[in-house]
Amino acid sequence: MAVLCIYLLVRDAVADTCSTGPSPLSPPDMYFSRFLCGYSSGVNYMTTSDARLAMTYPISALMGSVSADYGGVLAFAMSVYNCAQEYGTAHGGIAAKRVVSLDLPRAQTSDPSMRIVQFTACCADDDSFSMYSVQNVRFRTANGTELGIGAEFCRHPQPWVRMPEGYTFAGLVTQFPEDRANGPDWIHRLAFIAVRGEQLPDCSSQQGQGG
Ligand SMILES: *[C@@H]1O[C@H](CO)[C@@H](O)[C@H](O)[C@H]1NC(C)=O
């Protein structure tokens, strides 16, 4: 536990997880995919991670929005945990006109054929403005159903990444360029977090709250 608390303190500069809340998973039980889109070198990126919440609470939904002004980039995303009791940090930041929500418990728990087994992203044009940014996030379930959030337009589809056996999708890690941190920016790079085992809540008894 002490090791985990130090890990969390270093990672997120927060102490609250160490003293309160449910017992978090230990880091080896988490999976981080490689980053999709953006550039692997030559740009200093700032990182936003759902790791702290992903290892503590089951994910409920993924919210997102697209900015059409920039050729359809994923402007904003936010993971929702624990039946909407906890919200992750905002990924991206362009003020978005319309936020949509992808309901994950319904997709993953109620039916084994709807468990997320693969994920990928689409990347925008590779130019100095679009910078190969993320356009959308896509999931494929056990029976081949595709779910997604973000732009319908897809300039550069990326290969599907297979979820490790026994892991459940749990959140995102995203990046945008440091030199654009003073203004709102969209999501340039994206990686997937998964946790070992079942981490999905049954929120059916809580449905109808908030709306
Ligand atoms: C996958 O499963 C869902 C839920 O059971 C069902 O609605 C859908 O038609 C299935 N898709 C395929 C391609 O079998």
TrEMBL record:
Name assigned to this protein: Uncharacterized protein
Species this protein is from: Pleodorina starrii
Keyword terms of this UniProt record: Signal
Signal peptide: 1-15
Gene name of this polypeptide: PLESTBF000293
